[in-house]
């Protein structure tokens, strides 16, 4: 897939080049899986466990595996009973690989970044998961606004990244977190929980952020909460935004089982 065209800004072109050389061909796909297996890549397992602990109606919860690569998160979620999974990636070769796994229902090949939207409608997913794409020349910080747009009110964005990101990619990490905080200050979502774990890869630790959408403003929104925990729904029905916001800051009931 080629992204470079005059209408894209420079940063989009850089990302597009990285994607086409590193991810968008069959050799890259195979090499990618082998190198991650060799490095004991654990983040997708943690993410799957965390999401399984947050959602009650696991079988029906609609989940987008964003920047899915070869689908490690999808496989983790499938093992834990999730059956309503979609895969997204900017690299067609990765999406083609995901199709072969038989795990996902729908597939989206598209770039997400400055000026590039996801094709899904607002409030489509109970959760969006992502791992390994919060890094320079991958997901631009501004893509977070687009990610939250497709998550249902009360739903989750569960995102794993290298724990030393702030040291190795100082500017990018600053911008990513500043954008997350800006969206939080605007009342769009809240950092619901953060897990630091020791082995993201053999060579580095990892972090997983769970961000939760806080757009519980009307009854129609509450109807969309079908897959979330009953306690969250019951609380929402008290119908004051303040209550809903304070509830959304409560600690999640996580079940971080070994994998
Ligand atoms: C390091 S891989 C992670 C894949 C997978 N999530 C995993 O944990 O194995 C990053 C993936 O993100 C995709 N990607 C990176 N930046 C992207 C963007 N801006 N839009 C769409 N896909 C992107 C790449 O094509 C690649 O498949």
How are the SSEs ordered, and which strands pair?
Blueprint: H1 10-22, H2 26-38, H3 43-54, E1 62-65, H4 72-79, E2 84-89, H5 92-101, E3 106-109, E4 125-131, H6 143-149, E5 151-162, H7 165-168, H8 170-185, E6 189-201, E7 204-213, H9 219-223, H10 230-236, H11 241-248
Parallel strand pairs: 1-2, 1-4, 2-3, 4-5
Antiparallel strand pairs: 5-7, 6-7
Helix pairs in contact: 3-4
The protein binds S-adenosylmethionine.
S-adenosylmethionine is lined by residues 15, 19, 23, 44, 67-69, 72-73, 89-91, 94, 111-113, 131-133, 138-139.
Protein name: Williams-Beuren syndrome chromosomal region 27 protein-like
Pfam families: Methyltransf_11 (PF08241)
Organism: Plakobranchus ocellatus
- What would you call the shape? globular
Annotated CATH architecture: 3-Layer(aba) Sandwich
Biggest sheet: strand arrangement: 3-2-1-4-5-7-6
Here the CATH topology equals: Rossmann fold
InterPro entries: Methyltransf_11, SAM-dependent_MTases_sf
GO molecular function, one term: S-adenosylmethionine-dependent methyltransferase activity
Pfam family, one: Methyltransf_11
Protein name: Williams-Beuren syndrome chromosomal region 27 protein-like
């Amino acid at each position: 897939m080629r992204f470079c065209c005059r209408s894209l800004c420079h940063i989009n072109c850089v990302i597009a080049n990285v994607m086409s050389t590193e991810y968008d061909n069959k050799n890259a796909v195979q090499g990618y899986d082998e190198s991650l297996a060799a490095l004991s890549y654990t983040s997708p397992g943690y993410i799957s466990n965390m999401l399984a602990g947050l959602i009650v109606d696991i079988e029906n919860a609609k989940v987008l595996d964003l920047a899915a690569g070869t689908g490690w998160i999808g496989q983790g979620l499938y093992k834990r009973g999730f059956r309503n999974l979609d895969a997204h990636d900017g690299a067609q070769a990765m999406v083609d690989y995901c199709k072969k796994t038989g795990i996902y229902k729908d597939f989206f090949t598209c770039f997400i970044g400055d000026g590039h939207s996801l094709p899904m409608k607002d409030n489509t997913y109970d959760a969006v998961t992502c791992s390994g794409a919060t890094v320079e020349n991958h997901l631009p910080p501004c893509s977070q606004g687009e990610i939250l747009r497709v998550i249902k009110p009360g739903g989750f964005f569960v995102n794993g990244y290298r724990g030393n990101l702030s040291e190795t990619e100082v500017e990018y990490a600053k911008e990513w977190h500043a954008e997350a905080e800006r969206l939080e200050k605007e009342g769009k979502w809240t950092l619901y929980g953060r897990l630091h774990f020791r082995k993201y890869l053999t060579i580095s630790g990892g972090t997983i952020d769970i961000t939760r959408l806080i757009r519980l403003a009307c009854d129609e929104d509450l109807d969309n909460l079908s897959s979330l925990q009953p306690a969250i729904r019951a609380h929402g029905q008290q119908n004051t935004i303040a209550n809903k916001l304070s509830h959304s800051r409560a600690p999640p009931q996580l079940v971080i089982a070994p994998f």
